[in-house]
Amino acid sequence: MKYLLIFAIMTVSIITLSCDETRDLFDGGSGGGTDPLIDQEIAEAQDYNLTTPVYGMQVAVRNDVGMGDNAIMDLLDNRATGFLDCQFAEGSALGFQDVMLSDGDTIGPLSDLRVFVVPRTFECEAVGLDVCAGIYFFGNDIIVISVGGFAGCGEFALWRHELGHRYGMEADHSNQDEFQACTDEQGCEFDDLIGFGGFGVGG
Q1: Which CA distances in Å does 152 have to 45, 139, 149, 187?
Q2: What fold characterizes domain 41-193?
Q3: Which tens digit of pLDDT belongs to each residue from 117-176?
Q4: Fewest C-beta atoms under 10 Å: which of 82, 155, 156, 194?
């Protein structure tokens, strides 16, 4: 009887939520729903005044991110090391040098990369998506990444996915199978990355 009463209360609570509030329940653990559009121009305009201690990535942290700068810098470095060690035989040493991609293009060391950290999912203009928890701008070597992206995922759930784009994964994900093992985030269920109305794993 006690469980039936609890179930009834929860059901009534969910029914009385607005559509936006219901969406927020599934929309990532960061609270506050989805942020307005972040495009390449907005990303370019940030002040990248922080650097990560290992790779020297240039970082801008929006002032409403509820996480300390040092913790952010360490997570970005540590997960970049994990991605490089997983994806390439040369391992994390590639983070300090130019890398020639399979299409013949060359990208610089991670110290050339700019990272804009935001608190939650945001509107975006990615291939097949209109809401992102991360996006890589190929033209100017910038990643916008949210601390809290999708429900059930940890911080920076799509960081390694966006690094995959930097290191050769196509924008349309046509060669994603070459990166899948090293871009999947642990603790993030596949269903969490589907979302609603154009939500997805990032650009």
Answers
A1: 31, 31, 9, 7
A2: Glutaredoxin (3.40.30)
A3: 999 999 998 878 888 889 999 989 999 999 976 555 678 888 999 999 999 999 888 998
A4: 194
